[in-house]
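Friendly challenge for the regulars: who can give me the structure tokens for this chain first? No prize, just bragging rights.
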Amino acid sequence: MTTESTTPRTPDASRAEAAIDVQDLHKYFGDNEVLKGIDFHVANGQVVCVIGPSGSGKSTLLRCVNMLETPTSGRIFVEGEEITHPDADVDKLRARIGIVFQSFNLFPHMNVLRNLTIAQEKVAGRKKAEAVEIARANLDKVGLAEKETAYPAHLSGGQQQRVAIARALSMQPDLMLFDEPTSALDPELVGDVLAVMKDLASEGMTMMVVTHEMGFAREVGDNLVFMDGGVIVEEGDPRTVLGDPQHERTQAFLSKVL
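First reply, four minutes later:
Bragging rights claimed.
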């Protein structure tokens, strides 16, 4: 929940083992305060879904977790190490975090297999044979083993998003961030992507998911965070929050989307 305290702290005993621990996070864009003291954590192996209206700060929060956006103030710990610390090795910590955006961001001039191997070779320093083996295992995981020679333009949106997930997994991250991964897809393509995400959750992957897919949040989520106006308005068990929201802002939002 939000907090008024600006005193930095290390993770308390109940959160010391958290995969992600966000403490009193503020983010300004100019004079506009987009995040207003966000405080929450994601436990190891947990799936946390973040919902809320457009402009509520959901995607900014997600991007702050791996420092794609630099927080104005506050602290973020990734597996107990502070990624917001001035002396942090951000690239090293970021390597633990896979991220999938709503746009697929595949290299159009490379086939699927090369899209999955290039970062392994250039960033992780793996040999080509190892990178290919890992890439093929992850293509099989997302159900696209037969598409390794295809180019992105020849794939559906849902297939491209599954390739993007496989690419993130090929870097062998400890946790995954998803920023509305199905919002750019035609409705009939959403199910295949959500099925891959459900499989990841069942395997114990720690996941923070910004989403509009309430069915996924209810079925797969361990915790549901509702944001509005840059604050966490309500959070708890997804089935409880979706079935019996306590805050009027949550009630008003869910009345429009359920």
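Residues 187-202 form the longest helix (16 residues). Residues 64 and 70 are 6 Å apart (CA to CA). Your move, everyone else.
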